[in-house]
Amino acid sequence: MYGARHWRPAHCFQVVESAQDAFMKSLKQISTERERQERNSAFATALRLVRTLIGFTVLGVGVLLIVLPGPAFIVIPIGLAILATEYAWARRYLRRFKEGGEKLGAIFFRKREKKSTSAEPAPQRPD
Length: 127
What we know:
By secondary structure, this protein is mostly helical. 82% of the residues lie in helices and 0% in strands. It contains three helices and no strands. Helix 1 runs antiparallel to helix 2 and helix 2 packs antiparallel against helix 3. The chain is elongated. The N and C termini lie far apart (119 Å). 7% of the residues are buried.
């Protein structure tokens, strides 16, 4: 069926070369994916470092505002929220801070309601 004139050794070399090209392309693709992962890993590490520095800075300013005049009760939770994006311990402290704020708010508003109802007599309608 295949005679001497159909047998082309050059064609066989082309198949081998195309297989080698495909293999080299896959190696390049793997190496570029690995490089991209390494770059992303470095970026993620840098981002974590920046978040940590900003979070501790804001938290430190909040702690200073306990002694200095300023809204420490607002700044400290902001610092904890920034740190909570990276660390579990900050999430726990933030949760405690929220629970304490909710309890304090419930006590404050409950006392306020009692004072407002006891201080003012109920309005009566004229009949």
